[in-house]
Amino acid sequence: MTARRVGENQQTVPVAVTALSSALLQERQVSQVTDLARTAPSLSIGTGGTGPSTIVYLAIRGQAQNSPNSFSDAAVGIYIDGVYVARPIVGNLGFLDPGSAEVLRGPQGTLFGRNTTGGALNLTSAQPTDTLSGYVKAGYGDYDAVNIEGVLNAPLSDEVAVRFAGRYDRHDGYFPNPALGYANGGVKGEYYGRGSLKWESKALPITLNLIGDYMHYRDTGNATAVAAINPTGPLASFYGISQGVRSGAIPGDTPIPLSPTFSVPASTFTNFSQGPIGPVTQYLNPEFATDAQKATLLAKNWKYNFGAPSTGERRIDELGNFNEAWSATANLAIDLDAVTIKSITGYRWSNTSSNLDLTGTNTGVGAFISQYRQHQFSEELQISGDVGKLQYILGGIYFRESGTELSDSAIFYNTPVATGGDHTLGDFESTSKGLFAQVNYNFTDELRVTGGIRYTWDTRYINRRGTTPRLSATPNCQAGPNAGLPVPAGGCQNPETARFSYPAWTAGVDYKVSPDIFIYAKTSGASNSGGFNSRPVPPPYSSSFKPEDVRDIEAGFKGEFMNRRIRTNLAFFHAWQSNVQRIINTTFVDSGGATRLTQFVSNAGKARTYGVEFEGTVLPWEGMDLSGSFAYLHASYVKGSRFETQLVSGSAVQVDRSGEPITQAPKWTANLSATQTIMMDSGKLKLHADYAYVSSRYFDYFTTGDPAAQAAVAIANEASRIRGYGLVNAQVSYTFNQPQLELAFWMKNVTDQPYFTNVFNSYTGLGATVQFQGMPRTFGGSVSFSF
What we know:
The protein is mostly beta strands. The chain folds into two domains: 10-224 and 305-786, TonB-dependent receptor, beta-barrel domain (Maltoporin, Chain A), CATH 2.40.170.20; 234-294, no CATH class. Helices cover 5% and strands 54% of the residues. It contains five helices and 45 strands. The protein has a 22-stranded antiparallel β-barrel. Strand 31 and strand 32 (595-603) form a beta hairpin. Belongs to the TonB-dependent receptor family. Residues 10-120 form the TonB-dependent receptor plug domain.
């Protein structure tokens, strides 16, 4: 494993890490990044939400950043073949011909760099070998799921080998949407290809790996389950008028006051509701409805949803996610016996778009489309080696990314209060430079100390060029010196630059109590970079935010017993966060009286987390492998560290928000896996089942200083809590000795457990809170031929 950027034995690495080989990834049906949540303690993953389906919201030990935008960073870094993937927008990567996957828990800033305050995912692809080999695999499942993939490994000489891998996926939608006429959650087509070349010189101490890949993905959009509807919010109010006019209960010429001095005919709200006549609560998902409400629900079960924008703009109304990306990586290693020099060069490009109905109610409340374009280049140089009892690794990295992000929204469309929405547009550029060094000194064969430090210099640039209202013939600038004024001849411009610098460090000691027992203690610190918000930020919040800093201590035990038939790994941790970065979804009324939707990042006080993690493996009899893990996490804000100024009836009120729960911080996570391998004369039979549990966690929470709003806010908070759930998966496979043919049958979410993966809360804004459905039960089979 390479948790410390060099090859080491997992059981003697003083880091809490879950390492999965290619064989284990296949056995446990880990086909994409989100599946890793079923394999490691303290890891929870959200998907979709208001971002594209390819985004992942990673949280380890309560360290998370729930933002899909281009201007802020995740707390858990993703590395592929040594290259940092800057945007989690393309983070939910499918595993094609993987080499390994490692989940590193706790700050990893010294060796992996910035934006790893929660940890890191270290992923590798399979390298070319000197043997002609490969496989072809075809699979079919319910929802008309088709999967075809193949790998070809070929040596070109005794020094050069190449490897090619490709995959095609498609399936129908999981989530019926009667309002749209097609199901959400379907994949129209995923095309993914990778080619790699490895040169291992016989005459020179040089190894070069060149890797390139391309991905093209398109689906039928994220599903939205309505968790709560505010009976006094604008959604319910406008819906009631629309339904009244459509049913004849309200005459179309009935005056509807929009202000004390201005009214409009009720007929101007007619098209606000598009669905059948019935109470607004008919759109609630059955998992969130009361017994009384269930009698009128449109949803037949938890999978149904009704988000269907009707803005008249095709690019918003036809729900779907699109992602195109490619990358090129060059890993060069020069082995000079006592010294090894490594160069890791990477380039990545991506173009992603997504759209969504924000309330899932087939009404004209709100919808949007976002597009994210990004490209990045990085170069990292490492020098490592031994000097007597001292092992060292030192190096430097240069990273640069740039791109644009665009969001077009439609709020309260099909009503007389429609604002025309916002056209939010921002260009960004980010550079980061870092120098690092880490050493291990062996006092004895059993006792070792470790120390490391990194210093990082970041520069972030943004130019906000957004306008509002976007559908107006004479829009105004959103931000900058012309904010609120008509767009000038040169367009709206609001360039800003910020610079941040910060250290990361680690210090630890470890000891081999015996050949099979290893203990360690360490402390470390790391930071998440600061940045800007591209979307409108209402007072009193700032358009920029500071770096988030994390410091922790950790102690661990790793042991193997009974001739390595039992393995137990235990970790205790305590962490302190300051300038915590948190996402805020809200609506606000601008100076012109228009209601506007926004999402931005803000610093949110200090937090403290502590807990324990356990991982174990037991081989009780021949062919049986039992493994599992659990984690307990306590996460809370430091009392009195998070005060916020809120406007209540025109007056500034100081509100203490430090009593809120930490978002994306489940108290318990656990998983259990059992695999029985039975050897037969003709081949090998494998029976596998696993169970993964995550307890409830909030994705949004708010404390209001307005007594009149407290009841509504309490409902919104509860609707923003994802309930705990457990998922069961199973697989049966038989591999023949000759020919090397494998037949497999698999099932995911065996019990068809209803569960949800993310939240968009606008209960006190637009008038509803939605949660996003996880995958239902799926099953299928595959046949693969290896050579």
